[in-house]
């Protein structure tokens, strides 16, 4: 990869001074107390250094800062809500990179109910997009645990998934157009709210999921959907992931597009939640190896959705697919069901450090993947505890490994993360899956991605990077070496 000329203390200081002149000294942070929140990732796995944290207010200021970075040979690390899980928005330790936060680009530019679109800047928090859509009588279906702090720019940069992918798709499927500052400081206006546009290469999709390595997303046109008349939630207890797959097939056949959520949770996941959050009550009298949370979003009525749920559960129980089931009788109970699912990562954190995997395999292979990989890990490290949960409807598992009871979690992580990663990723590869389903690669998974991708695929990615960012100033050290 071509590099810019080596930075020097003089060039760094010259760059910082030029940024102050461009966007105002108050928005160029250099004091360690002010920059600290921007230099450590959410999991506190990586901490870097930066010559400055730049806080522009609009796309034109972003473009001006990129031009200054090119002029002075300074690499930029774009950052949204800093909620990523792979270190993709954290600078290196050199102190020669600058963090460019998009938080002040926080305006909703337009809502078009007839076109079912909302145009938002990159720094708008996801929950705000959801709320503004609801005010207009529409639904923005992207939903994930960090929605109160993550930003739409970060969601696009990582192609975030979440709980609604089964029905609505990843962030990529929810985006119609982008505004992007290129690595040369030019501003591309691709904010077209079109569902059909066959006029050449799809530049929009090139930037989505690129983690800021090809340019800086400053705004986007996102799809909206009609608000459902009712949402009904249920929990179903099952004997195995294989039974869960049979239940998914039945639910899709009977509910079709009304099925908007299908989340798998192992018994140990729920026991972990109960241990650390005892107010979240286990919903069944007996324990079960697997529990599925499913949700129907109905455009007709709650009564229609409940009737369909009853038919589905009756069919599943009669077929022996489901062992027990409970349907939420109120919004509060529905929220309690979702709280069980959403508190699994929090319970893991309370239990101690763990080895996380955000993987995807073909839906039909999930049961076999879990059986084979659980057995391989148990043979290699007896006593480890598997925390397996995720979005079964789209093949995305959070396949995490907790240290054995009573074992020092930090020491376990340091000694065993590499071997466990290899077991998991080799199994993912055998099942023709992906080692990153919705979190991205960042700096955490660069080497693993290069190992499991073909040489041709890596070369093609490098060619795209070099063509757009020949100086390697856009978030270097992420996604690709």
UniProtKB/TrEMBL annotation:
Keywords from the named record: FAD, Flavoprotein
InterPro entries hit by this protein: FAD-bd_oxidored_4_C (IPR004113), FAD-bd_PCMH (IPR016166), FAD-bd_PCMH-like_sf (IPR036318), FAD-bd_PCMH_sub1 (IPR016167), FAD-bd_PCMH_sub2 (IPR016169), FAD-linked_Oxase-like_C (IPR016164), FAD-oxidored/transferase_4 (IPR051264), Oxid_FAD_bind_N (IPR006094)
Residue spans crossing the bilayer: none
Residue ranges of domain FAD-binding PCMH-type in the record: 46-227
Molecular function terms from GO: catalytic activity; FAD binding
Cofactor(s) for this UniProt protein: FAD
GTP-binding listed as a keyword: no
GO process terms (BP): respiratory electron transport chain
Domain of life: Bacteria
Similarity comment text for this entry: Belongs to the FAD-binding oxidoreductase/transferase type 4 family.
Name assigned to this protein: FAD/FMN-containing dehydrogenase
Organism lineage: Bacteria, Pseudomonadati, Pseudomonadota, Betaproteobacteria, Burkholderiales
């Amino acid at each position: 990869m071509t590099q810019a000329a080596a930075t020097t203390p003089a060039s760094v200081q010259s760059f910082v001074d030029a940024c102050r002149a461009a966007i105002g000294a108050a928005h160029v942070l250099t004091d360690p107390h002010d920059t600290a929140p921007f230099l450590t990732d959410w999991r506190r796995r990586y901490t870097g250094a930066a010559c400055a944290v730049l806080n522009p207010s609009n796309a034109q200021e972003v473009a001006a800062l990129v031009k200054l970075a090119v002029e002075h040979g300074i690499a930029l690390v774009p950052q949204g809500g800093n909620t990523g899980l792979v270190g993709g928005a954290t600078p290196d330790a050199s102190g020669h990179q600058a963090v460019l936060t998009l938080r002040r680009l926080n305006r909703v530019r337009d809502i078009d109910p007839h076109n079912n679109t909302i145009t938002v800047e990159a720094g708008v928090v996801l929950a705000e997009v959801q709320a503004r859509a609801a005010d207009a009588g529409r639904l923005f279906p992207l939903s994930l645990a960090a929605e109160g702090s993550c930003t739409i720019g970060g969601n696009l940069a990582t192609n975030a998934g979440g709980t609604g992918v089964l029905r609505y798709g990843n962030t990529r499927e929810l985006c119609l157009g982008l505004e992007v500052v290129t690595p040369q400081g030019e501003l591309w206006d691709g904010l077209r709210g079109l569902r059909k546009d066959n006029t050449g290469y799809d530049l929009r999709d090139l930037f989505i999921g690129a983690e800021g390595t090809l340019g800086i997303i400053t705004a986007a046109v996102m799809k909206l959907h009609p608000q459902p008349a009712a949402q009904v939630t249920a929990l179903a207890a099952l004997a195995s992931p294989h039974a869960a797959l049979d239940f998914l097939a039945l639910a899709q056949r009977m509910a079709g597009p009304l099925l908007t959520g299908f989340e798998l949770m192992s018994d140990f996941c729920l026991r972990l939640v109960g241990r650390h959050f005892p107010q979240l009550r286990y919903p069944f009298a007996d324990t079960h190896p697997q529990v599925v949370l499913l949700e129907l979003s109905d455009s007709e009525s709650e009564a229609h959705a409940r009737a369909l749920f009853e038919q589905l559960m009756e069919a599943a129980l009669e077929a022996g697919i489901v062992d027990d089931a409970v349907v939420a009788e109120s919004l509060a109970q529905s929220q309690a069901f979702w709280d069980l699912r959403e508190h699994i990562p929090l319970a893991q954190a309370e239990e101690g450090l763990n080895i996380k995997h955000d993987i995807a395999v073909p839906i039909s292979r999930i049961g076999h993947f879990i059986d084979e990989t659980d057995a391989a890990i148990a043979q290699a490290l007896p006593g480890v505890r598997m925390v397996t949960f995720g979005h079964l409807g789209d093949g995305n598992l959070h396949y995490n490994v907790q240290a054995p009871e009573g074992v020092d979690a930090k020491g376990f992580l340091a000694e065993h993360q590499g071997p466990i990663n290899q077991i998991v990723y080799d199994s993912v590869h055998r099942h023709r899956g992906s080692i990153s389903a919705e979190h991205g690669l960042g700096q955490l998974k660069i080497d693993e991605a290069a190992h499991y991708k073909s040489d041709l695929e890596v070369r093609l990615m490098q060619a795209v990077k070099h063509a757009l960012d020949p100086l390697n100033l856009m978030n270097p050290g992420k996604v690709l070496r």
